[in-house]
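name: query_chain
kind: protein
chains: 1
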Amino acid sequence: MAISNQVIFFDTTLRDGEQSPGCTMNFGEKLRIAHQLELLGVDVIEAGFPASSQGDFDSVQAIARQAGDKIQICGLARCTERDIRRCWDAVKVAKNPRIHTFLSTSELHMKYKLRKDPETVLKMISEYVSLASSLTPNVEFSCEDASRSDRDFLCRACENAIQAGATTINLPDTVGYAQPAEYIELLDYVIKNTPSAGKAIFSVHCHDDLGLGVANTLAAFRVGVRQAEVTLCGIGERAGNASLEEVAMALRVRKDYYGLESGIQTEKLYPSCRLLSMIIGQPIPNNKAIIGANAFAHESGIHQDGMLKNRQTYEIMTPQTVGRAESNLVIGKHSGRNAVKSKYESLGYKLSEEQIATVFEAVKDLADRKKTIFDEDLLALIQEKLYRAPDSFRLRHVSVSSSDAGGVPPTAAVLMDVDGIEKSGAGFGVGPVDAVFNVIADMVGREPELKQYAVNAITGGTDAQGEVTVRLADKGFSAVGRGAHPDIIVASAKAYVNALNHLVQAEKEGRRVHAQLDDGEEAGA
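structure:
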């Protein structure tokens, strides 16, 4: 197989990314992320681990069913017959399905995790890759913990997998241990010393434990690797994975160095990462490369002077190339429906007429309270109005009273719908937010544990919307809620109610905080 100059982007946000603590997504959220990844231009979506739970199977199957004909939908499976057949049952409805199976190859993993000798591991690779390739010609095999494996044993493992039908071979840095120079030396050796290497595409999946996930991924391209396994915002196990947006922009900005192409529509990077951020309730750090708020900010006088003279003095890319487009289309209370629709399309969203009608009313309402509506405001509105859990509870009104006078505790009064019935309540707390949460919890008859409460100003200015993220846990289930409003107390109440709705939905779907496989083993690679 001739080495192409096209890099295959294999996105594992929905599998490895979701394994990151606090990044669990429900069924509808996974479908939205998958749709956005397709718009972004990724080549392969690893939609989940079908054998891990019925919920994961259902979401992988639904993603496979909705996918178009230009994208591959992949499921992960251990080297067992049950996993592989379960994976195939989930992905086979896709127009382009892939089975991704894996087995550890390092001496450490074989001895302590698998408790199998090397020869048995080689036989398992042949047996189960053969099974997978009998179901589909599109099979990927991963040598888990490849970066700490014996290089000659890796060559034998890769040869067995290719001979058994694997068309993609992944050599992951599973624990983020490798250094770029030694990693590409290993990759180069394996590719050159595996007899059937020319029949497969080689891939890397680099974790970021030492902060080298992106560096190792980019280095791998120099020795013929042509698939990068990445996630939006770099989310994933432990310290995460190589960031899709960073790898994509490195290839674009330094095309002179890499000479490689990709199908990533970089203008959709920021909207995609922002959508993920809102869904998992984790703000994008200001100093995050490519998509952070400070990525295109300049405070130093020297830098500002250079920027005024020529932007290229201190900017190697423009905000527009990553989807932070500067636009003359200002949205306000006098804006029409078509203007709102056009603005959302420029942000990467194709909305139905019914959805436009919903957000249009929300935009008009916000414009009555806020002088200037920013892109971030519009993104927050679409998340709140369109992408929320089915409402068992709905907030109507909230009123609070707070004082620094001794002996007068903060009080809250709340009016809301509980399972379709209008209820009202009032109570106290150590602060106004605590009082609101106490009243709402009492009204819905639950006592969830508050695991996280975070406030973020969506934009600048005293009239900025506050975006609140709340994480609740109750009876083994966990859920994230978000709310946005110029009044931070109202935003907090919205987020708390939203989290309660997600909690109810999680219980219905049976998604526990840390779902594991039947034998307690978690996904690797």
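note: The two ends are 24 Å apart (CA to CA).
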